[in-house]
Amino acid sequence: MTPAQTLRDLLAQDKCHVMPCCFDALSAKLIQQEGYDLTFMSGFAASASRIGAPDLGLMSYGEVVDQARNITDAINIPLIGDGDTGYGNAMNVRRTVTGFAKAGCASVMIEDQLAPKRCGHTPGKAVVGRDEACDRIRAAVDAREALRAQGAIS
Fold first, then answer.
1. Integer Cα distance of 110 and 112 in angstroms
2. Annotated catalytic residue, options 21, 105, 119, 134
3. If you ran DSSP here, which 8-state letter would residue 125 be given?
4. pLDDT, tens digit, 9 for 90 and up, residues 37-86
5. 128: Cβ–Cβ under 8 A, 6 or more apart, which residues?
6. Catalytic residue at 119?
7. pTM (2 decimals)?
8. Measured between alpha carbons, how far is residue 113 from residues 23, 43, 70, 135, 137 in Å?
9. For residues 47 and 45, what is the distance between their CA atoms, to the nearest angstrom?
10. Is residue 136 a contact partner of residue 128, using CB atoms and an 8 Å limit?
11. Is 35 left (phi over 0), alpha (psi -120 to 50) or beta?
12. pLDDT tens digit string along 117-147?
């Protein structure tokens, strides 16, 4: 079963799932070892552990996908990846969704913040307009459908 299908099956259950956040392969292995069904790669924690800086958009798309790949290689539970704002416009969102899926993520979270983004707990955040938000959603869905057509995901 694919990570995405495993995640869909978990979410179909009528219960609340506790989902500890990981930041690297070791923290993800510890979460799995403790019996949790899934984990989330925290952008803040991954940034702090990898470059010693907060999640302010300093880590590149490539660094984040590499971090996700290292995590998924180490665990057998679904990983939800932090896809930041999708790293640009709708075309970048499509690339982000594709890259996270190919890295083994069960899902990817795309934020609706304006660039430059701010970490979730910092003041001064603003969100994109409705048209841009819809473009990001369409791009993510297009990426998912292309991956399904290729047989890369279920």
1. 7
2. 119
3. -
4. 999 999 999 999 999 988 777 889 999 999 999 999 999 999 999 999 99
5. 112, 113, 114, 136
6. yes
7. 0.92
8. 22, 14, 27, 13, 13
9. 5
10. yes
11. left
12. 766 667 778 889 999 999 999 999 999 999 9
